[in-house]
Give the backbone structure.
Amino acid sequence: MGIVHAGVSLLFGLLPVLAFLAVLILLDSYKLVRPRRVVHLLIAGGLAALVSLVAHWVIGRVMGLGGVQIARYVAPVVEEMLKALPVVVAISRRRIGFLVDASIVGFAVGAGFAAVENIQYFLALGDTGLLLWIVRGFGTALMHGSVTAIVAVLSKLLFDRHGSLGPLVYLPGLSVAVLLHSAFNHFFISPNLTAVLLLVITPIFFVALFHLSELRTRDWLGVGFDSDQELLELIHSGTLSSSRIGAYLEELKERFPPTVVADMLCLLRLRLELSIQAKGILMMRQAGFPVEPDPEVEAKFTELRYLEHSIGATGLLAMSPFFHFSDRDLWQHHMLGQK
């Protein structure tokens, strides 16, 4: 009976946050974060938990801090910084396109962290009672997932607006996460009540976020798909010269060799095709249709990289007035290469 009770206790410490993550993935109608990537994020979060355990021990020994001081003031800073690292990498490498996948990425990292942390506590404390593990599973674990999701969402919003600010775009989200984490560890209200509040607030927050993100995604898909198609039709019909983009390309002929200008036109055509293809995949996923990977995508990426290298940094900069080298465009190309 003791083994069964211990197993149930550990299950309550692990299952809630992982189940909530699964629900978030199912709610994502565009299926923006692939299952294999979720596993990688869970592992990254678990590694962050192991590193934080060592960091807490070292800081406690060096600074002579007690367990309460570490929990309230050291752990929130160390743990949120470590959990934020996979989020920063994903955003800076343009692997996140929308708020909904930012929230899933952040929550997955936090879930992995919480799972490993609860296993650590279970090994250290043993089966100290079912109530403790219910509180840790529905309270502490959801807190870890939620605050890291907040880091990802706020950072994504700021990165889209002020990408040139560099590391500063991650500071507001990280600061909010640290403050919320520290407040949680201060136990201003009872742990039981905190768990109940998290169970109420967390779903409301994510449902509202998903609704907002889906509205913005639909707007972007509609406008972007139509404009990309119109521009691609101009290129294929040979009437691009009558447009403003065609006039701008004519001006570039005076500044760049004809072969480079030709590569610019090819690059524009290729990226428009990839953009339309990516938007089409999102639409099909949203409608519930399975989408098989395109075997020709890798060849298109190879050609894309060749054209960008051939055009050079100056040529790419010259193309920026009429070609959107945006973070979301780059994310679309990454999404096309996913299995």
User: Anything to note?
Assistant: DSSP finds eleven helices and no strands in the chain. The two ends are 45 Å apart (CA to CA). Residues 2-214 form one domain. Residues 191-237 form the longest helix (47 residues).
